[in-house]
Specification:
Helix content is about 40%, strand content about 20%. The protein is of the alpha/beta class. The chain has a 5-stranded parallel beta sheet with strand order 2-1-3-4-5, with helices on both faces. The longest helix has 13 residues. The chain has one domain: Response regulator (Rossmann fold, 3-Layer(aba) Sandwich), CATH 3.40.50.2300.
């Protein structure tokens, strides 16, 4: 499966890339929603892990744009953010996010959310 990590923090992208690559994903990275939109138009992405607070196009705007286009109806999206208010969780889910996880997170938390999203994790090396 192909995953896209969208976050303006290089260190968060690196951590998430290590987690996902470690469980068998091919991983691409984007620093904001605009970069991510350009990338998904060029290649198929099965999963996007999306930060909320980014320049140019934030995560919620990205999710809304993706959900408008039927070509991406099977893409799973998880919001990975520092936004902890319950209204933000609701806003992200209403926009079309499949799951929501708050930073800081652990590898186990990410895997648990992937399983909740119906993504099978066959072998998850530690």
């Amino acid at each position: 499966m192909r995953a896209l990590i969208i976050d303006d923090s290089k260190s968060i992208r690196t951590i998430l890339t290590e987690i996902l690559a470690g469980i068998g994903f091919a991983v691409e990275e984007a620093a904001n929603g605009l970069e991510a939109m350009a990338l998904i138009k060029k290649e198929k992405v099965d999963l996007a892990l999306v930060d909320w607070n980014m320049p140019d196009m934030n995560g919620c705007e990205f999710i809304q744009e993706v959900r408008k286009d039927n070509a991406y109806k099977n893409m799973r999206m998880m919001m990975v953010t520092t936004e902890t208010a319950i209204n933000k969780v609701a806003e992200a889910l209403e926009a079309g996010a499949d799951e929501y996880i708050m930073k800081p997170f652990t590898r186990e938390m990410i895997i648990e959310k992937l399983v909740l999203m119906g993504i099978s994790i066959s072998s998850a090396p530690k």
